[in-house]
Specification:
single chain, mainly alpha
Amino acid sequence: MTTLSSVQYMLVYNTFSFTIAAMFASFIFFIVGRSQVGEKYRPALLVSGLVVAIACYHYFRIFNSWESAFNLINGEYVPSGKPFNDAYRYVDWLLTVPLLLVELIAVLALPKKDREGLFGKLAIAAFLMIALGYPGELSSDTATRAVWGTLSSIPFAYILYVLWSKLGASLSSQPAYVQVLMKNIRLLLLFTWGFYPITYMLPMFGIQAQSSLVGVQIGYAIADVLAKAFYGIMIYWIAYAKSEADGSLPAKH
């Protein structure tokens, strides 16, 4: 930890606050939204709600840890001696990344032959991606961070490849409007998941320690909002569009 200016500290503080609010609001949206889609797509929205609920809890803990890690002295935020526990974020990813994959598989409603074994492979790859990245996150040595980051990128690339190919293969069987949404969620996956390694590499670019700390925290928070809350909204629209296409929308009273 390093001394931060008031602006640097508050940027992270307010970003964490925004992230908590975004996760909580999207949780309410997903739970209410379940009643607006066909029954077979409701599990996807239940998982969406679970993802943002877990993220909201962990960001609340991260927020509290950030507050206790600094003391305001003469207009600057000085390390208090209490460690900033960034491990909450990795615990969150261990739980939510596999669930994000479940969301997509659930809303696709793939045939049984295409679903079998798919989640197991992706869950193992997700675990390896997060577990291999964590030692590098803890290290202040650029070479160590680079080695673990490279190892973590292998299962990361595998997950993107499988999802991209599976999504691509399922496009032709979807209604026209759903195809547009599916293409958009593929781009969202590529953008948001690609944002994590970029943020991970920030300390390797020789950036000042204060700026690096702030950049990593804000970068991960923005990526989480996009990859969980906004991604879940995309899942909702796909579920709604598929429900409309197959005539399973709930009757309006």
